[in-house]
Amino acid sequence: MSRPQFSDDNPKENPWTEDRLGFAPFAKRLADSILEVDAPNGYVIGLQGAWGSGKSTALNFVQAFIEKHNEELEEGKKPIHVIDFRPWIVSGHQDLIESFFKIITEQLADQKDAWAKRRKAGLRALRKNVDPVVDAAAAIGSILAPGVGTLAGIGIKFASEAAKKGGASKIDEWLAEPSLQSAYEKLRKRIVDQDEKFLVIIDDLDRLTKDEIRTIMQMVKTLGRLPHVVYLLAYDRNIVWPALDDGRKSEKFGPGFAEKIIQQEIELPKPSRNALLSLLDTEIGFLTGNISQSDRWYRIVVDGVHNWIRYPRDVARLSNAVKFTWPAIENEIDPQDVLAMEGVRLFEPDLFDWIRGNRESIFGTGNWDMATDTGKAKAGDAFMSLFPISSQERNARLLCLLIPSMTKLFEKKHIFALNSETHVRVVNRRGIGSEQGYDAYFGLHIPDDSISVKIIERALSHQTTRAEQLAIMRGIFSREASPNRPPIGEYFQDLRFRLHEASQNSAPINLLEAIFDFGEVILSIDKDVGALMLGPQANASLLLLEICKLNRSEEFKDRLIKLFESRPSLCFAAGFWVWRAAEAGLIKIDGHTREDTLDENLVRQLHGILSTHIEESIESGEIYNEPVYFHISEVWAFNDNDKKVRSWISASSLADGRFLAKICRGILGHTVGSNPRRYSMHEAPKEKFYDVSQLHTAAEKHVDDPDLTEDERSRIKTLRTGLASLLATRAAAEASASSPQGDGEED
């Protein structure tokens, strides 16, 4: 993606080339009215609009039309002089009007000498920090001086530009006047005599402090009597009017006082929603260009964007936020969610704070009260209470669009159009509702233990070789991460989620082969990942299932046969075969249903290859290096080999305590999270494989073997206890069954 250019949010200046929101026709009509107005005693126009609504752009367009009018005047006709006065740039002075008019009582006729001294002491400071009123008056005086002409923008740059245009000398002239009143009258007479017309534009009144707003409005009221001077003021009424009221407890003059100053107020036309949305679409096209239309996207637009974008500045704020965030996490998070989250951050701060502050509840690692119906309802009520009644349902919909799992909070509230997207789909698109997307957004980077989308896409490419697939797995496995979240497990989960929604023949066979190559490493991972999560082995097994379901070609069958013939990890291959055999209905595993994965003939063919491998490994002794044996036992026992398996397990268990400890893994369960692990035996061992009496004897023999690890001895001890209890129960049952039953009581 090319680097997006930030919107500068500067007002536009050229109504002929930059009018994207329809302000030019309005500005043209306003400029024409100003040109036609006859104001012998001055005239004040107010342009009212909300903050960020485009007032400055409209003023610039008005000025542009007037300047064009001046340029096209016939010879001999006088132009209208424009003074662009921006008081907020030089705001902060306490006595603006006093600084300009030198309001000294007319009774102090002998103050002429005192004023001269004051002038000498303060003139240097005045030139450095010129009050805007002084600036404006000096500008008018400069325009009236021969050869100076129109001074636009002197209010902004007076300190640096006034000297070049005669401003400094005019300040001297005004300060030399013995009375500001006489200076005002002199200025008024000069305007009348020379028949000049002025437009004084005052923008951004709503940026000033309350005191400064009142000062500027008083200035306009005073200077508003000047002949042929039209003032065009831009402001937000909701800010300026309260400022005029502030401090007037006994005499509320708000609109009444303003109406004494502003003779004509005009409402800035509001840009159409379509124009604003079109502008936003242009600004963020790099993000939305490839977004497909969907019900979810429709709700983001309706419940989010349409409520957020009301003024031009809203477009600039949202587009700039997206332009800043996206490059850091490009393609690692759903672009729809980036737009939605940035909108929530800017325009729905309470919702944003809730999402940011409830990670544990969102992803099930905290707040177990939400596991109950009562707890969920309570959490939903607490969420709704954060918002005004009018926006409660809309914020609930936005939350569920971003975090679909949170629909559980509102199950009994009957809110219209709540999102019910599956977790698999959220993870696949890396939405905020997935841990990867959530952490990437709030961290503004891809967490170290997160799997990049680029890696996932590379792994799912048919162009990635078997060796490259294996290299990816090794790289991910080598990453440092929290003990209960091995990155390789996250990797397999992300892949299987993507394939779960993929089309037929889209799963690369190279990926399956590389997983088999990595099988021994996968089986070596012996870390608990919590009761609610799947470990690397389970995720790898489910990933292999998805790959098999998506491949039906003869090439896939041939390569799978060759893979088994290449003698991959025996234990890993046995596990693969057991699940495929259960899906084909060849063996029974509790809780496992039939699926159309591999056809029965292929499963049987793979079994023949694997059985030969097992027997050869037993003969060579290599089999004793395998980590576990329950899947190997299932494979070998298939086709009536039960007795062989029982005999081999019994003999090997009696001979080797470490072998017995491995056998325990297929019989015992253990608690999750305890350290050291605590083992238990809840079910009797499958006697198809295990001779209970022989295993108990082996456990008695090896329970205190000093060559074993503490964990291995703990397993054997638990096995001994469980088998002893089982044997005792059976003995009691046999004794009860064999004892003679009397026909009656003895005399």
TrEMBL record:
Pfam families: KAP_NTPase (PF07693). InterPro entries: KAP_P-loop (IPR011646), NTPase_KAP_P-loop (IPR052754), P-loop_NTPase (IPR027417). Residues 23-325 form the KAP NTPase domain. Gene3D superfamilies: P-loop containing nucleotide triphosphate hydrolases (3.40.50.300). This is KAP NTPase domain-containing protein. It comes from Methylobacterium brachiatum.
